[in-house]
Amino acid sequence: MRSGTGWSTWKVHTGATLAGDPTALLYGTDIHIFARTTTTTTTTNVMAEIYYRSGWKPWTLHTGVSIAGTPAAVVYGTSGINVYARGTNNHVYETYYRSGTGWASWRVRGGTAVAMA
């Protein structure tokens, strides 16, 4: 719901076929959505879509890791976003966004995960 406008109608977000549930967060005044998508028969990646003041932007593919389950995202202080996901090899991976530098490559955070919420 936007201030002063009430509830909007549902919007179909095209451009990606989701393979799991999305997760969303508010970063500043922008809404960020992250979801798992199947881009090939063997690779599952994270997609991100952002709502800026001017409207929804197209999905962006974050490649480099084949993930299982739903990614988790958190706001990092006032300057970034961290995204975590369980790889199909059960390692925990992280990528992050920082103002001024953009998105980092995925990196292993260590350990083995059985499942992530």
List the helices and strands and how they pair.
Blueprint lengths: L22 E5 L2 E9 L5 E9 L2 E2 L3 E3 L4 E10 L3 E8 L4 E7 L3 E2 L3 E2 L9
Antiparallel strand pairs: 1-2, 2-3, 3-4, 3-5, 6-7, 7-8, 8-9, 8-10
What would you say this structure looks like, in words?
The strands form two sheets. Strands 1, 2, 3, 4 and 5 form a five-stranded antiparallel beta sheet that branches. Strands 6, 7, 8, 9 and 10 form a five-stranded antiparallel beta sheet that branches. This protein is mainly β and 117 residues long. The chain is globular. The protein has strands at 23-27, 30-38, 44-52, 55-56, 60-62, 67-76, 80-87, 92-98, 102-103, 107-108. The chain has one domain. The model has no long low-confidence stretch (mean pLDDT 82). Helices cover 0% and strands 49% of the residues.
Low-confidence segments: none
Overall morphology? globular
**Rg of Cα set:** 15 Å
Number of helices: 0
Q: What summary fits the major beta sheet?
A: 5 strands, antiparallel
Beta-strand residue percentage: over 45%
- In round numbers, the mean pLDDT is 82
The helix-strand sequence is EEEEEEEEEE
How would you classify the helix and strand content by structural class? mainly beta
N-to-C CA distance: 26 Å
- How many β-strand runs? 10
* Percent of residues in helices: under 10%
Count structural domains: 1
